[in-house]
Write a structure and sequence with these properties.
Elements: E1 4-12, H1 17-32, E2 37-41, E3 44-47, E4 52-56, E5 63-67, H2 70-88, E6 95-106, E7 115-128, H3 134-158, E8 179-184, E9 188-193, E10 197-203, E11 206-212
Parallel strand pairs: 1-7
Antiparallel strand pairs: 2-3, 4-5, 6-7, 6-8, 8-9, 10-11
Helix pairs in contact: 1-2, 1-3
Length: 218
């Protein structure tokens, strides 16, 4: 399967990184998230609705919509914030990339493990800039808001909901699934599993794995 790939390039003040990246990724997750499945009988199911909420940024003239899920929002915010802080504290040119990846889980044959096949990857390249005075910061705050609004509209227009419909919806077995993964340079990543959620962070040679057993509920 050839993964669809998209790249956004942003020049941001350090304080704007978290909000700008979160706005784009939350837009993607909102459009790619399905409500909880309710199985009636074999081959028959219904899909519940997803709650949503508005978020108004503090350092950009921009408001976006995200899923009303505390667990999802906390996981995303934690890793985007880590990427932002490491980017802002870097010596020399402060540049980095963070990615959101969706994949399908495919059962392996016999002793072979389950495969994770990416089908869509969204990359955000960030360049941290320093503006000379408050007047320039205010002007850039406004223009950045317009730029993010255009990117969010582009995301909404390009997403095809049919791509995330389950191919073989059954009440038992793992079936097709989605993973979203954040990769930052320096290495910061989050992996979200539906229905279970797991996070992995890598900093140098240290890896911390945390498994969250509760399912996402919307």
């Amino acid at each position: 399967m050839n993964a669809r790939s998209q790249v956004f390039e942003l020049s941001l003040e350090g304080r704007q990184v978290h909000e700008a990246v979160s706005g784009i990724f939350h837009t993607l997750l909102f459009h790619r998230t399905l409500g909880k499945f309710h199985y009636k009988r074999e081959g028959s199911y219904s899909v519940g609705t997803i709650g949503f909420e508005d978020v108004t940024c503090d350092f950009v003239d921009f408001t976006y919509v995200r899923c009303a899920s505390d667990e999802l929002n906390q996981n995303l915010s934690k890793d985007v914030l880590a990427f932002s802080e490491q980017l802002r504290s870097a010596d020399g040119p402060r540049q980095g990339q963070i990615s959101l990846e969706f994949y399908q889980k495919k059962r392996g044959h016999w002793l072979l493990p389950t495969e994770s096949i990416p089908w869509e990857v969204w990359n955000i390249k960030v360049n941290v800039v320093t503006l000379p005075n408050e007047h320039e910061r205010q002007k850039y705050r406004e223009s950045l808001g317009d730029m993010l609004a255009e990117k969010v509209m582009a995301v909404a227009a390009s997403i095809k909901p049919a791509r995330v419909r389950p191919q073989d919806a059954q009440p038992a077995g793992p079936g097709p699934g989605l993973r979203h993964k954040l990769r930052g340079r320096p290495a910061v990543q989050l992996q979200g599993w539906l229905p279970d959620v797991g996070t992995v962070k890598s900093v140098g040679r240290t890896t911390v794995r945390k498994l969250l057993k509760d399912t996402l509920a919307f």
